[in-house]
Design goal:
The complex is a heterohexamer, with 3 copies of chain A and 3 copies of chain B.
Chain A: H1 3-28, H2 36-63, E1 66-67, E2 71-72, H3 96-114, H4 124-147, H5 152-156, H6 164-181, H7 198-217, H8 225-252, H9 257-271, H10 280-304, H11 312-330, H12 348-379, H13 386-391, H14 393-398
Antiparallel strand pairs in A: 1-2
Helix pairs in contact in A: 1-2, 1-3, 1-7, 2-3, 2-4, 3-4, 3-6, 4-12, 6-11, 6-12, 7-8, 7-9, 8-9, 8-10, 9-10, 9-11, 10-11, 11-12
Chain B: E1 2-8, H1 13-22, E2 28-36, E3 42-46, E4 49-53, E5 56-65, H2 70-82, E6 91-96, E7 99-102, H3 109-113
The chains are: A mainly alpha, B alpha+beta.
The complex binds adenosine-5'-diphosphate (3 copies).
One adenosine-5'-diphosphate sits between chains D (7, 33, 35-39, 58, 87-91) and B (27-29, 62-64, 102, 104, 113).
């Protein structure tokens, strides 16, 4: 084992931990004041619940001994057998537990991202049920396919450095699907839902950027040149995307702060699958492409008149899709010998595999999310009543208000 | 002149504003208040205990108009907000204003309420 | 009808509210204001210099009641807030309201101020 | 007594306050409002779309004075705020107050508006 | 020396540094707006003042050459003799200075925790005096007994991985004691003191969770399996406690955000002494137990009618007490060979030693705090006048307001 | 290469990344609400734009192959040739890319600091132009002179551990100069511009303190004793300065939170050039001296009636100047053998070299900034119109408001 690697992976885990509540702040600033706490609480509660799901059985399902290339076994229930000794395949230089911890934070953030589709009218209890089912039935299998020893997408040779497909595509598609199941907010299309606190959203995006260094850099699972490289491409793509968003919104109106914050996150999403495989100029292109993709998709979603409230699909699903495909284009063995060459370097195969993995993630997430959301909707009920929506979820779901002020 | 103080739901502000604008009532003042009508209160939580907070956020829309217009304004507000049959639709108070001064021009009363001198 | 505007201390709001409720005055509107009475100001600090801020937070409690009730309301408020002998106990302004409309039902004036039509 | 409600720019509050203080008007209440005069609105941005917000922050300065003084107060406010020739200089509404009560002492009306009983 | 270990301990020190102001934010959100700044300032000023106390003489008193098992000598005044060379006993693979720095952050946070008992009516100057005396006369000896080379509790074999006893019990008990000395807030029992900003409290708890990884993980003083393990148990206990609190409050009313934020912190406190010694399932039990303990103690404190304003005793003192005892129950050499076996593994001795150390911390902290608080109260005065309390401490003590708003 | 060193430098880069938006929060809390977003946005946009400038050509200009001791060549355009292999001179144990990343964050924060002189009336577009020109024409050469291989100040033997001269003097002097070019805010000297949110400023200063550990500790470019030492002196100087500021303001009035937050930052600035070279007691003296210097300079600047809005000159320029000179006084080879002895240890030479480097930084930054600001002012226009200023920059420049509230 290597203490430098351990230090870096531990630190990365800490950084990623911060991201889940940061998603809460990012989203929280975008809703109306009466739903501010409840929006943050959705993310915060994922951190709490999925932490437990993961150590009890989620990790075992995702990374445990492979069953038919489809799922991990329950042999590692309650981390039984997961100890200090490294797991040779997953990360040879750090304790197996460190790898488990690092992956936990990935499992945690994913349902938190989806929460953006539900805000302002979801029943808190329904979201708790949703997240446990979704994490178990969608995230865990998907993580196994892509990253688990024996997983079939991994065997196919699909690349996903830090979760563009597993995390961002699945959550984005899930968000769109869920929005088709849960009812719209009252007055959707008629009322302007003004974001209450752009400062909070900005604070969230700052912490997300900070945490994403752990997300992407930590995915090297060692303190090495790949980790360094991944952090740099991450930073560069975020900047390129934010600048692009700024310019687009300037052309149509003015360079809004909300837009720049969004652009930043979109750039971070787009580079996620690619960060350890592509060079600096491709990273810039990926950032720019992410902004263009997500921006157009927000317009599209608006036109479709779907109340996917905080545009998780456009910002995560579509930027993640673009990133996964771009990985198939720009990946280069010169950057990372453990990766593969992409289309630009004459390798059509990787490109096709990437496309395949994108399609799989889309279809699987959409189908499963629909079933889960529909089932909850029919039995327990997904959304609150109109009176509760009007009073606001902070009071109706949590009995509190964000700010005491007469 | 009459001062109309309408306490309405936040959600309705935009619609009311637009309707008033359409009817030619541009100038107005709004602020955030909390209030309750004849309904009861809500019990909120504090760590291991509970406390009662019984006010909900509302918008106070204050608009001063010539006496002749006030009924029209009241009607517009009632019209828009009434759609919402649930409780808390709001209340309107009408009172008399003795004098209005437009600071910029020093115009008084009805002249101060119209846009004429602006051009 | 009379509009009572009482500017009181934040700490006293709960007690006043409860006392009014007990006396049957449920509907009311409150908002946050800053103010000063006849007292002076407070000097605040800004990095290496100072600046003066002389307003303190207060609560504005606004309640409209039938003419016959207003003295009772005033008395209740004075009673509760007066306990506090220090300065800044507050002030009450009473004025006349010409018309009251309950938006939900369209009821006017005193009818709009009572809970009768709710049942 | 008269109630003067002046809706002015935040920047002018300090100057108005000082001028009123110099003229002996100490007691007053202020709060934050948003408003618009006869001007239009401003279009704001929301991610990839836009929305319209047409209110700007203003200060509501509310001061109740004896009938005899109100013209003086209005003049002071107009004087100070008028310097600023741009739009949005503000508006003043004057109305009648029937009764004033100083809570601390129970003094009423004009007595409640002067500092005399303080000593 | 090992660069990986240094990197991890440095990083942990940074994380813990963040915790002290985070306590300020956590507490700041719970008071009324007029005391918001002053509440944060109590914590912030501890960071400033105790940093200096520590490098000048606090470290020497705590960890300097032992005098009769009771206190360190002043040989290391102004860090004289504390240098780059490792201290073989305290941490063999990192510079002695790094160990000093890491411990500094522990010394700093402890009085900040106590400040919760004082808020909304303490004189700022009195709190400054209090913290210097308390840190010197309570924290420094207690740290020496438990962790200093030659300290008598250490010699007895008491376990306190990251400060459950030294930090949380002492500060919690001190808070309760101080609350008995300082006068209640005006209107206590009659007025509802509504917390001004639950968002700020939540932000504080997020940063605390983040920082706690350094607190507990860094206490391994190396980037090794124990550090990894400690972080995982920390995370798990926090989640278990928060979930428990959510459920309890749901049963009695609704799952409040304030409660979940509190539950999180309580779980972090409870696992602190145990994190490097216990397994995953015990960590869950410790988290649950922490929530149950603190929740009941808040109710109790309310019944006692003591204005221990922000429940430091219930949340730190009692959760810390539970954690210290639970360490005596669940500790296992299989998890950490440098630890000991607890009751569950047939070792009564550790359990008794843990009980003894708890009793010592309670008695010592209560007695000393009473003397210090009483002395300040009689001479300088602990609390502000009623007029100053009414205007609020932000204006009366600091000449400022948290938010400029007419 | 050494994984521990890599872990630490990566982590430090993450910490410093956080500082630039933290400057935004710190400044954002000091302005009026209508300019809050725009103030944060100035810093945030530097992070975006200079990230790209740096990877494209800024790094090459600063650290690329030396041309006549004055500037780096463009050989490393788009990081061409900057790879995983360490650069023997700059940092022998980490990838060259890691050094590049670390330095990027320095380049990013510097123009963000200057933004404090512009707030509340700058055109956003003009600031974007300004920052790109300034970074290219002032920062990059200055960084080359002091830190680039072959740079003439470096060759002279000037010491600047973490950027006191290169970052703080240049930015502070630039701020003063820029304030002489841009018009004052409307009503300057007549109106009280009340800071809107001291809480936000405090949050900014907390994150700055946190990030500064990476800034100063990371400048050792290794996880070694010097890094540890630098973090400790940093912490101590911050505390000493904050305490000094608290006492000064207490004497004249009351211990304000804004003052303590400012004092903290000033202490961090003052120790920056010295942190890896001086002992603990000198660090305390440097902190105290920083507070005294900046405090007096704010008074001076007020007297001069210059609208250098957020006192960047006093807090960064002058504290940086004091720190650079103090390095010439207190530096000691006993602390850092790679440093030099200062005046106190009988070496006049270093002291003179430090003075020289200070003068160079002042003159160069003042002259260049004047040219750049003047040029923009004459052509594009530096400040917004009075109506836009009155409506506020949030609405007029970004089309948004910080908080939605009727
Ligand atoms: N008597 C009153 N005096 C002052 N404000 C009132 C009064 N009654 C109602 N309001 C205000 O009007 C708002 C809407 O009242 P609403 O709940 O619609 O009244 P109701 O239940 O009587 O129909 C309340 O939130 C409160 O702010
Ligand atoms: N003449 C006035 N006009 C408007 N508001 C006033 C006036 N006098 C007092 N107030 C409001 O009443 C509040 C309480 O006044 P208070 O300090 O109790 O008055 P006094 O000192 O005259 O007894 C003030 O903070 C202010 O908001
Ligand atoms: N008719 C009105 N009723 C209520 N408030 C008004 C009215 N007209 C103006 N105001 C308030 O006065 C403020 C300043 O108005 P201003 O723009 O100066 O008026 P104008 O453009 O008519 O000169 C507005 O922001 C609004 O708050």
């Amino acid at each position: 084992m290597n203490t430098g690697d351990i230090a870096w992976v531990l630190m990365s885990s800490c950084l990623i931990m911060l991201m889940t509540p940061a998603v809460g702040l990012f989203y929280g600033g975008m809703v109306r004041r009466k739903n501010l706490l409840s929006t943050i609480m959705l993310s915060f509660s994922v951190l709490i619940v999925i932490t437990l799901q993961w150590v009890l059985f989620g990790y075992s399902l995702s990374f445990g001994p492979d069953k038919g290339h489809l799922i991990g076994g329950l042999e590692w229930f309650a981390l039984n057998g997961v100890g200090e000794m490294p797991h040779a395949v997953y990360a040879a230089t750090i304790p197996h537990m460190a790898f488990m911890m690092f992956q936990m934070k990935f499992a945690v953030i994913t349902p938190a991202l989806i929460s953006g589709a539900f805000v302002e009218r979801v029943r808190f209890s329904a979201f708790l049920i949703f997240m446990v089912l979704w994490s178990t039935l969608v995230y865990d299998p998907m993580a196994h396919w892509m990253w688990g020893e024996g997983g079939w997408l991994r065997n196919l040779g699909a690349l996903d450095f830090a979760g563009g497909t597993v995390i961002h595509i699945t959550s984005g598609v899930a968000a769109l699907t869920a929005a088709l199941v849960i009812r719209k907010r009252k007055g959707y299309g008629r009322i302007n839902y003004e974001p209450y606190s752009i400062v909070l959203t900005l604070l969230g995006s700052i912490l997300l950027w900070f945490g994403w260094f752990g997300f992407n850099g930590g995915s090297a699972l060692a303190a090495n040149g790949v980790a360094v490289h991944a952090i740099i491409t991450t930073n560069v793509a975020a900047a390129a995307s934010a600048l692009t968003w700024m310019i687009i919104s300037w052309r149509s109106h003015r360079p809004g702060v909300m837009g720049v914050a969004t652009g930043t996150v979109v750039g971070l999403v787009a580079i996620t699958p690619a960060c350890g495989y592509v060079g600096i100029l491709p990273a810039i292109i990926i950032g720019i492409g992410g902004a263009l993709t997500s921006y157009s998709c927000i317009l599209l979603r608006n036109k479709w008149n779907i109340d996917e409230t905080l545009d998780v699909w456009a910002c995560h699903g579509m930027a993640g899709t673009w990133g996964a495909i771009a990985t198939g284009i720009f990946a280069s063995k010169a950057i990372n010998p453990n990766g593969a060459d992409g289309l630009m370097y004459g390798n059509v195969n990787l490109f096709l595999v990437q496309l395949a993995s994108v399609v799989v993630a889309w279809v699987f997430s959409a189908a499963m999310t629909f079933l889960i959301a529909k089932a909850i909707s029919k039995t327990w009920g997904l959304s609150v009543g109109e009176a509760e929506e009007e009073v606001g979820l902070d009071i109706s779901q949590h009995g509190e208000e964000a700010y005491a002020s007469v | 002149m009459k001062k109309i103080e309408a306490i309405i739901k936040e959600e309705n502000l935009d619609a009311v504003k637009d309707a008033l604008e359409a009817a030619g009532f541009i100038g107005m003042t709004v602020y955030s208040v909390k209030g309750r009508g004849m309904g009861g209160g809500i019990t909120l939580e504090w760590r291991a205990g509970t406390y009662k907070v019984d006010f909900l956020h509302k918008i106070m829309l204050m608009i001063v108009v010539p006496e002749s217009d006030y009924q029209k304004v009241v009607d517009i507000i009632v019209e828009i907000c009434r759609a919402d049959v649930a409780s808390g639709a709001g209340k309107i108070f009408v009172s008399t204003v003795d004098e209005v001064i437009r600071i910029r021009t020093g115009e008084r009363n009805e002249a101060a309420l119209t846009g004429s001198s602006r051009a």
